[in-house]
């Protein structure tokens, strides 16, 4: 009996979830594995946020919430968009969902006709492609090269747009490459998008607060106010406030789009968990010092990993500008021979080697649409990261590297 609809056959299980599952099984069997697969902060949700949830539950906020979000959380989101991003929204232009992932799914489920195209900038968050495929859309993959810091150029964007393009997904700081855009670059992309008013833009800014050095996060919608009718700005509390399990994401965009997404959401979940919404409101309204503490910790870890990769032949890691992943280029290891004489030919094989030989769970770049890379999640302690990098270095040292000409 075939239970799944045919459109689901194109969907691949999430590579990072699969690797983490293997790592968990290995750990349960007593093996010494450091899991650098999954992308969730290793910090605890700050206590005032937990207190706010408890208070909400005790105060009776336990009934069905509005489909589009509670008034209190919407007010907090409006204030946050104004404070952090220079964006002005009214309540009907805001929607709250169970995680940014549900926002993304909802946006596409609401707007996509079968066969319509969604432009993805590789390397991209692997769920994007699967959501598009699950909904019968067509992913159009633009490969963004390390030479351009993994950013899409206006020329690449222009070449990718067709009359069937429905969305461009722009994620920055990006998972997995940590790519960011400055105001000029956003302006140039914005000018291109203005010429194609049929293209909607999903600006996934969920890593906005995890940004390093001189880089600063700038919202596309703020740089290009003329794109107001085209841009859906997506965010959430998972990454900035260590709240992955609370499942709250949100978006601001054109009111008719939000209204249509709300209609769709009423069919999916009747809104997001009321108690988690109270917690998210506290996260956005309350003191922001924990966000900065997490950011500083991620920057230290990034520096640690970048320095460690410098000492590993065949691997290359320009310092990521944001997010908490290290996307390590490993072209120099393709063709390397293991002790048993077999060769590593793909990044998937390299990730498997790192798991078998070093006990390190990583995700191959092929999961994100660009090879040959491995992604390490830096959402782990400095101690674990230092140990992991030593183990990776030792396992690479056991390989016979291909001759460099
Ligand atoms: C780029 C990006 N967008 C969205 C999400 C989903 O976040 P949420 O936990 O809010 O569903 C993730 C999670 O890994 C992500 O990396």
Question: What report would you give on this structure?
Answer:
The chain has 405 residues and is an alpha/beta fold. 40% of the residues lie in helices and 14% in strands. The chain has two domains: 6-44 and 290-397, Aspartate Aminotransferase, domain 1, CATH 3.90.1150; 48-287, Type I PLP-dependent aspartate aminotransferase-like (Major domain) (Aspartate Aminotransferase, domain 2, 3-Layer(aba) Sandwich). It contains 13 helices and 14 strands. The strands form four sheets. It has a seven-stranded mixed sheet, with helices on both faces. A three-stranded antiparallel sheet has the order 9-14-13. A two-stranded parallel sheet has the order 1-12. The longest helix has 22 residues, at 289-310. It binds pyridoxal-5'-phosphate (PLP). Residues 39, 99-101, 125, 171, 175, 204, 206, 236, 238, 244, 249 line the site of pyridoxal-5'-phosphate.
């Amino acid at each position: 009996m075939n239970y799944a609809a045919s459109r689901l056959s194109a969907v691949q299980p999430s590579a990072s979830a699969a690797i983490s599952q293997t790592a968990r099984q290995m750990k349960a069997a007593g093996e010494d594995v450091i899991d650098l697969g999954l992308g969730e902060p290793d910090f605890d949700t700050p206590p005032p946020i937990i207190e706010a949830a408890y208070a909400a539950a005790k105060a009776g906020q336990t009934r069905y919430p509005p489909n589009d979000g509670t008034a209190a959380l919407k007010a907090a989101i409006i204030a946050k968009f104004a404070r952090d991003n220079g964006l002005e929204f009214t309540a009907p232009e805001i929607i709250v969902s169970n995680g940014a992932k549900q926002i993304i799914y909802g946006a596409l489920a609401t707007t996509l006709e079968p066969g319509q195209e969604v432009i993805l900038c590789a390397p991209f968050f692997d769920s994007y492609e699967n959501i598009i495929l699950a909904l019968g859309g067509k992913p159009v993959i633009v490969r963004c090269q390390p030479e351009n810091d993994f950013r899409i150029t206006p020329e690449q964007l222009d070449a990718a747009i067709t009359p069937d393009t429905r969305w461009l997904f722009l994620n920055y700081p990006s998972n997995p490459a940590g790519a960011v855009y400055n105001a000029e670059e956003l302006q140039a992309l914005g000018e291109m998008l203005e010429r194609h008013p049929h293209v909607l833009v999903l600006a996934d800014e969920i890593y906005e607060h995890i940004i390093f050095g001189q880089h600063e996060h700038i919202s596309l919608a703020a740089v290009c106010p003329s794109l107001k009718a085209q841009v859906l700005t997506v965010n959430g509390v998972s990454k900035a406030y260590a709240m992955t399990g609370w499942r709250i994401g949100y978006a601001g965009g054109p009111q008719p789009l939000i209204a249509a997404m709300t209609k769709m959401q009423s069919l999916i979940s009747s809104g997001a968990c009321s108690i988690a919404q109270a917690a998210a409101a506290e996260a956005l309204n309350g003191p922001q010092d924990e966000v900065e503490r997490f950011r500083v910790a991620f920057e230290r870890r990034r520096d640690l990993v970048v320095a460690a990769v410098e000492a590993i032949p065949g691997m290359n890691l320009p310092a990521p500008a944001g997010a908490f992943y290290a996307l390590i280029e490993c072209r120099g290891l393709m063709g390397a021979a293991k002790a048993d004489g077999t060769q590593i030919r793909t990044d998937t094989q390299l990730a498997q080697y790192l798991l078998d030989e070093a006990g390190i769970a990583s995700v191959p770049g092929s999961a994100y649409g660009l090879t040959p890379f491995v992604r390490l999640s830096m959402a782990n302690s400095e101690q674990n990261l230092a140990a992991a990098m030593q183990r990776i270095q030792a396992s690479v040292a056991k390989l016979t590297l291909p001759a460099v000409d």
